[in-house]
Write a structure and sequence with these properties.
Helix content of chain A: 10-25%
Number of helices of chain A: 2
Strand order of the largest sheet of chain A: 2-1-6-5
Largest interface: A-B, 38 and 38 residues
Order of helices and strands of chain A: EEHEEEEEEH
Low-confidence stretches of chain A: none
Strand content of chain A: 35-45%
Number of strands of chain A: 8
Mean pLDDT of chain A: 95
Oligomer: homodimer
């Protein structure tokens, strides 16, 4: 299960897709250790570039991503992880998907309601 | 339609998803000019890191990606482009999607047939 981590300073982009609906939920980055933990634990784990450390998605919110299938692309420098998303939303802003804004007439328009109140989950930080 | 190109040296990852089937077809990178051309022309354009220049997907193969919808994520550092994929396949290896291999028992297994013969499209380079 080789991957090419060299092109992006030790990281690969990881696209997270809902296994049931097919919706793209988020994109994160994995280093080799995050990828290994994702495979071994069955829960998506990323490398946080801002915090400089591994990040088990859902460690604060409980909104974990249970892995159903992992694919890689032709260049082996990206992974696609199809998941069951535990909890009402993946996005820390309260939406089901981080991709809750769509381009319309040159502006990013929010096209859906929040699935949960981020302040109740993350406290004052949301 | 602001995007944050600063986190990744002037690039954002661009996830390409089939509008009809929901399948994730490929992930490329866009710089600001590639994103602008994608919006203005309606065909997905990337920045090729290996070639160091803009790359209209399909310029050789004819397998262009006609944009149906563009979304961004909470951090505005990734785009999701939902497309109609023109031509039999997106991957230069002949498959419908670049994600044609899935992890099974620690190995990347090819789970589908080629949709076209890449040698007939790309010549000897495929």
């Amino acid at each position: 299960m080789r991957l090419d981590f060299a092109k992006l300073d030790g990281l690969v982009p990881a696209v997270i897709q809902d296994f049931g609906t097919g919706r793209v939920l988020m994109v994160g980055f994995m280093n080799e250790e995050a990828f290994r933990q994702t495979v071994e634990t069955g829960f998506a784990t990323f490398y946080s570039r801002s915090r400089g450390k591994l990040w088990l998605k859902g460690e604060t919110s409980g909104h974990r991503l249970a892995v159903r299938e992992i694919s890689t692309d032709c260049d082996e420098d990206t992974v696609l992880v199809r998941v069951d998303a535990l909890g009402p939303g993946v996005c820390h802003n309260g939406y089901r998907s981080c991709f809750y804004r769509t381009l319309r007439d040159g502006r990013w328009d929010v096209g859906e309601e929040r699935a949960y109140n981020p302040k109740e989950v993350y406290g004052g930080q949301a």
